[in-house]
Specification:
mainly beta; 16 strands
């Protein structure tokens, strides 16, 4: 009887494969939830109001700039005639500048799980010293507001175990031929006969050599990579994440939120602190209300299972201009928006249908 029949491969390591480590009692294979950060050792200074912006205005869009933006828009569509953009007469232009408030909360979160790897001679340091607690382990953060993930082997948690998949054999039955070393001949479908005569490919045996294991019936164990042993340890996952939320105060119903998300504006205000102070007294009350709400929500939601490292709030004024024009005695409208001077024209009057034969 082959060893594969005695020890069928397991899908997951058994629970008793992992040792008990003080401070990590809830750690399981596959990980769990994020670990709450410890309370700060020193009182945290309350957030302070940021500087007042000095300029709230954007220069009006010039007519020649609006026309050139419209021409670029028309030329970017293969089915659009450029006649409305080149021959249309602009009758009026109305600014509908839009505020975008953005709050960023840069957090660090930590979680642990039991992990294993093929044993390659690493020292097994389990219990040689007490293992440091998850939030005591040093990890170098990236630049502020940049996402990054780092995995760290927790010191003094490593031990050597027999491979649970191959039971220290270093090999496992081939999944392609189920350990037999051969499979049905692909020419005769295992019959041994093709068109009334013995199959030339398999010489009438109906069997074909398994190419996956080279006919041996076994292949290298994928869990231990043939090493027969595993190094088991607790792995700490440290995740730095920039949690971003925007609030757009729309003034022009012709544009959608997705349109405005794809462009930039004039930065009116930026303030960065450990915890930011809500932007109160802003000329547009909707911006102040959004700031107060988002600051409260972020500090409540992200402080539970992560450590807030920094917050940043920004206000942009996105230039939006509604352009009214006439072409062939009919009135039409398009919008120019963002520093990129993108155009939206839902009722472009000169389109055609292209049919590819």
């Amino acid at each position: 009887m082959n060893s594969g029949a005695v020890y069928p491969p397991l899908m997951a390591p058994p629970a008793n494969m992992f040792d008990n480590v003080p401070g990590y009692e809830g750690t399981v294979p596959g990980g769990g939830g994020f670990l709450p950060p410890p309370m700060p050792m020193e009182p945290v200074a309350p957030p302070q109001p940021g500087p007042e912006p000095s300029d709230w205005s954007i220069p009006a869009l010039e007519e020649n700039v609006a026309r050139e933006a419209f021409k670029r828009f028309a030329s970017s569509h293969c089915c659009y005639s450029d006649a409305p953009a080149t021959e249309g007469v602009i009758t009026s232009m109305e600014p509908f500048n839009t505020y975008r408030y953005r709050l960023e909360t840069f957090t660090e979160s930590r979680s642990t799980e039991w992990a294993h790897k093929p044993y390659e001679g690493e020292p097994a340091d389990f219990y040689t010293q007490p293992a440091p607690r998850p939030w005591e382990i040093q990890a170098t953060p990236p630049k502020l507001f940049n996402n990054h993930t780092e995995k760290i082997r927790v010191p003094y948690t490593s031990s050597i175990k027999e491979c649970h998949t191959c039971h220290a054999a270093g090999t496992e039955p081939c999944s392609e031929c189920h350990g037999s070393g051969h499979k049905s001949c692909w020419v005769c479908n295992g019959a041994g006969v093709k068109d009334g005569v013995n199959c030339n490919h398999c010489s009438g045996t109906g069997k074909d050599r398994c190419t996956r294991c080279d006919g041996r019936g076994r292949k290298e164990c994928q869990t231990c990579k043939g090493k027969r042993q595993l190094l088991t340890y607790i792995e700490l996952k440290v995740e730095w994440k920039n949690n971003v939320e925007d609030h757009v105060v729309e003034q022009n119903p012709s544009l959608k939120i997705d349109d405005l998300c794809s462009v930039t504006g004039k930065e009116l205000f930026k303030n960065s602190q450990y915890l930011v102070y809500p932007l109160l007294g802003f000329p547009n009350p909707a911006v102040s209300q959004a700031s107060e709400r988002l600051v409260r929500e972020h500090q409540t939601n992200y402080a539970q299972n992560s450590r807030i490292l920094q917050q940043r709030q920004t206000v942009e004024l996105i230039p939006v201009t509604k352009v009214n024009y006439k072409w062939k005695s009919n009135a039409h409208v398009y919008c120019v928006y963002g520093n990129e001077q993108k155009v939206r024209a839902d009722d472009y009057p000169a389109t055609c249908c292209c049919v590819i034969l």
